[in-house]
Specification:
alpha/beta; six-stranded antiparallel β-barrel; 11 helices
């Protein structure tokens, strides 16, 4: 790393405020410690060994991943307790077995008898019992078995018992991203109840279900009761983003990620300021569009990370960002000259970080870059 300040960095690039990140991690960890539940952080947002080391409870985990590339990267650095939390397919089982042969306890997720049979068959053929968790659909958001679908749960559990290992049940309240206020507590309770009820069905059928795993950032911060839950998985809480601020689980001042951009032009008659950070730097995620306040492609801050009042990236091309005053806000366009630097807070931390190969680490309002942490992408 040669750049020592934000003014020296080539743009666009990804900036991480380590002070904010550390506060975000401490906030959730303290909350869950007070409720007696373990945190199994989801590392799909971070995709960084340096970030993982700061969010996991130990160097060995536990951790959650969404790609087997993530699993391989983290296993190579000593992480040993991993859930691969995307529905497993037979073609990926050799990778899972290879990771387990390296001494890592990698568990898979599934929601059909067919998947369970494939996992059991691979376990028998290799003599290595693969642990699996049954995914539970707690809110109709995505995949999973309904928690009251007794026969399907039992059939999957028994199929796994024929050679593999039923590790437990797992759910994700993806619907919580659309909830607000008191509804978030209900989402958290629905999430909790779904795994508790499903585990009870399996237990009554004589099938062990030691792990009852829940997790989303909104529900992790709003659960009033986690009785029966053994662990919480959450990921974006490490950085937060504008969608999470719109949901109400953080403030704009908690967002630890931003994209550093340079002013490259003006269209004064249109009220535009142009930057070199288009959707290739920010992603095309427009997650705040359905929220109470539409933040465009992100909130625009000065180089110290302080937001300009009512200033957003309203539109973007591949390599151009268009900064304007948020419509209807009554804000005033600042006087930014060619070459000035701005930082843009993202709608979606996961998607924005995925556009970049490194985190440039700063603290608070300081422009000093104290480290450059590599991150990785891809699936293989």
């Amino acid at each position: 790393m040669t750049a020592t300040t934000l003014k020296d960095l080539p743009t666009p690039c990804l900036v991480l405020d380590a002070d904010r990140m550390e506060c975000n991690i401490a906030r959730l960890r303290q909350r869950l410690d007070g409720m007696g539940v373990a945190l199994r952080p989801h590392l799909k947002t971070a995709k960084s060994v340096e970030v993982a080391r700061r969010v996991m409870s130990s160097s060995a985990g536990p951790a959650t991943v969404s790609t087997l590339k993530e699993a391989e990267q983290f296993v190579a650095t000593g992480v040993r307790d991993i859930i691969y939390a995307v529905g497993i397919v037979p073609t990926k089982l050799p990778q899972v077995l290879a990771l387990r042969a390296k001494g890592a306890d990698v568990a898979v997720v599934l929601d059909t008898v067919e998947q369970a049979q494939a996992v059991a068959r691979a376990s028998r053929e290799t003599g290595a019992r693969i642990p699996a968790l049954i995914e539970i659909d707690c809110d109709g958001h995505r995949s999973g078995v309904r928690p009251n679908d007794r026969q399907r749960l039992i059939d999957i559990g028994r199929a796994l018992a024929d050679g593999a290992e039923l590790r437990g049940v797992l759910t994700h309240a993806g619907g919580s991203y659309a909830a607000r206020g008191a509804a978030l507590q209900q989402c958290a309770e629905d999430e909790r109840r779904s795994v508790v009820d499903a585990a009870a069905i399996l237990h009554e059928a004589g099938l062990a279900c030691p792990v009852r795993s829940v997790g989303s950032t909104p529900t992790a911060h709003n659960a009033a009761d986690l009785t029966g839950v053994t662990e919480v998985r959450a990921g974006v809480f490490v950085f937060f983003d504008l969608v999470m601020a719109g949901v109400g689980v953080c403030s704009v001042d908690d967002i630890a990620l931003s994209v550093l951009a340079t002013v490259i032009g003006h269209q004064r008659e249109k009220g535009w300021i142009l930057t070199d950070a288009g959707w290739m730097a920010m992603s095309q995620d427009r997650g705040t569009r359905k929220q109470e306040i539409d933040r465009g492609y992100g909130i625009v801050c000065d180089i110290a990370g302080q937001p300009h009042a009512d200033l957003i990236v309203a539109d973007a091309n591949q390599e151009h960002g268009i900064i304007t005053v948020r419509p209807g806000s009554g804000g005033v366009l600042p006087n930014l000259a060619i070459g000035d630097r701005v930082r843009v807070l993202p709608n979606h931390a996961c998607a924005t970080a995925a556009q970049h190969g490194h985190y440039h680490v700063v603290r608070g309002s300081s422009s000093r870059v104290e480290a450059q942490w590599p991150r990785f992408g891809g699936w293989q």
